[in-house]
Amino acid sequence: MKELISLTNNEARNFFLKGSSYFSSNLPEYISFEPVLTEAASQLNGICYPDYRKPHGLTPGNCSNVNYLILTNKDGKYDWRPLELIHPVIYVSLVNLLCEPENWEKVLNRWSDFQGNHVDCCSGIVIPEGDEKTKAAQVKKWWDRVEQQSLRYSLEFSHVLHTDITNCYGSLYTHSIAWAIHGYIEAKENRTDCKYLGNHLDKLIGAGRAGQTNGIAQGSVLMDFIAEIVLGYVDEQINMELAGKNGFKILRYRDDYRIFADSDDACEKVLQIISKELLKVGMKLGSAKTNLCRNVVEGSIKPDKLAGLDLHDMGTLQAKTIQKQLLMLHSFGQRFPNSGALKKLVSEYQFIIFNQLKKRPKDLDVLVAIATDVGFTSPSTFPGISAILSKLISLAPAKNKPQLWEKVRNKMARVPNNGYLEIWLQRIILPKNIGLTFSSDETICKIVDRKPVDLWNNNWIKEASDIKNSVDSSKLLIEDPREKDEVVKPSEIELFRQNAWFY
C-alpha cells in the first residue's frame, strides 16, 4: 500500500489539492471544494499568499473568521467538535510551501528519523488505489497495522493499556512544528526566522486562526500530516527516554496509544513517560479513555466492534420485521452511541432497505420515529440515517410527506451546535418533489440556497483581485440540489460507509 511519504513533492502537492484531501468528511455530492482549490492554486502559481494582502499591514491573523468552522455534535447534547475549513488561499499556500522540493525532502528526512525503536507508528497517511477513497485506504491500514499486530502481541505480552490524547488537534502547540522539523534547540534559537520551514508553517496555520499558537484545524489530510509530524517528534522523545529498556511495546495510531507489557506496573511506567512528553507539545492524555486489560486478545478489539459482529446482517435472521430490525439498531445505539460500529450498521441497513423495501409499511410513522431517534442520540450517524429516512418517507402518501418531514426537522433542530447535521437535513428535505422549503443559519446551507454569503473572511485580500474572485463561495455548489432524487442512493453516502470503521 503506497504511503504519502513515498510521493515526490509534485505528487504530494497534487494529492493535497484534491477536494477529498481538503475536507475528508462526507458532504452531499452537490457540494465540492475542488473548483475553489483549483482556481486558488492557479492564481497563487506555486507561491504563498502575502503578495495578495491589502496594504497598511492588514493580515489574516488580524481578522476573525478567516477559516470556517462546521460544528458537529457527538451526543445530541453538549459534546461537540469543530471541523475547520482552512481559507483556500492559506491552504494552497501551506501546500505550496510544504511541497517545495527542499522542504519536502527535509520533512521526509525527519520522518525517517522518527521511525523504529519502541514506538511503532501505524498512522502514516496512505494513498488510495483506483477509485478507493483516502479514508477507506486508512481503514485497511488500521486493520493491518493496529488490530492485527495487537492480536499478534498476545503471544508475547499479557497486558495491554489503551489511552488517547484529549483534543489532540485543538491543543497542539504550533511552535512545536518547528521543533519537530528542525530539532528543539535549533528551532528555539531561530524561532522568529520564517526562512525556517517549521516557523513559516506555524505562521501560516496561525494566520487562519487569529494568530493562535494552540491548535490546528481539524478536517483535512494536510493537517493530519502536520499532526503526524509533531506526534512523530514526540515518538522520538519517548524512544530516547526508553532507550536501553525492554519488556514492552507501543503501538500508536494517530492520537491513540496501545502499550503492551507483562504487568500493570510496566504499562503504567511507560504511560507516565508518554504523558510527560506529550505535555511538552501542549497535549495531555484523557483519563476517561485510559484502561488496562489483562488479556491482550480481548483488549485488542473495541467492545462496540465485537458487539457489532453479532448484528453484521442487521439481525435479519432473528428480526423478521423492519420495526424489529430498527429497534435492534436503536438498542445498539443506546449502548454504543456514535461508535464506529453503529455507523457501520447504519450504512449497512441503509443498503438493505434501499434494495429490499418496495412498498409502504403499515407502521411507517413508527419506523420514521425510531430511525430519527437513532440520529438524534448519535448525530454522527446522520448521513446514513438521512438516507434511511429518505427511503421510508418516499413511500408515504404525498399528502403525509410534509408533515413527516416537519416532525423530523423539528426533532433534529433540538440538537445544539450541529451545522453538519443541518447540511444533511437540507439534502433530504430540499428536492422539489417533496415540496418543502428549508431554512438554516448554517452558512453552507445558505450557499446551497444561492444566497450571497461568504464562507471565509476575505477582507484581508486586495479588492477586485483575481485571487479574491477565485474563492467565491458560490463555486462550491456544482449541482442543483432541488433536482436530486428524493431517495438518497447508497452511492451518495459511500464515503460515510467507508469512514464507518475509521474511529
Give an overview in words:
The protein is α+β, with helices and mostly antiparallel strands and 503 residues long. 48% of the residues lie in helices and 7% in strands. The chain has 23 helices and seven strands. The strands form two sheets. Strands 3-5-6-4-7 form a five-stranded mixed sheet, with helices on both faces. Helix 11 packs across helix 12 and helix 15 runs parallel beside helix 17. The longest helix is centred in the middle third of the chain and has 21 residues. The protein is globular, with a radius of gyration of 24 Å. The mean pLDDT is 89.
List the defining traits of the structure above:
two-stranded antiparallel sheet; 48% helix; alpha+beta; single chain; 503 residues; 23 helices; five-stranded mixed sheet
Topology:
Blueprint lengths: L8 H8 L2 H4 L11 H11 L23 E6 L6 E6 L2 H11 L2 H14 L4 E3 L12 H19 L6 E6 L3 H4 L4 H7 L1 H6 L7 H11 L13 H21 L7 E5 L2 E6 L2 H16 L11 E3 L2 H5 L2 H7 L12 H14 L4 H17 L7 H14 L4 H13 L6 H12 L6 H11 L13 H6 L17 H5 L23 H6 L4
Parallel strand pairs: 3-5
Antiparallel strand pairs: 1-2, 4-6, 4-7, 5-6
Largest sheet: 5 strands, mixed
- Average per-residue pLDDT, rounded, comes to 89
Large-scale geometry: globular
Helix/strand structural class: alpha+beta
As a percent range, the share of helical residues equals 40-55%
Radius of gyration: 24 Å
Uncertain regions: pLDDT < 50 for 5+ in a row? none
Element-by-element helix/strand order: HHHEEHHEHEHHHHHEEHEHHHHHHHHHHH
How many angstroms separate the termini?
20 Å
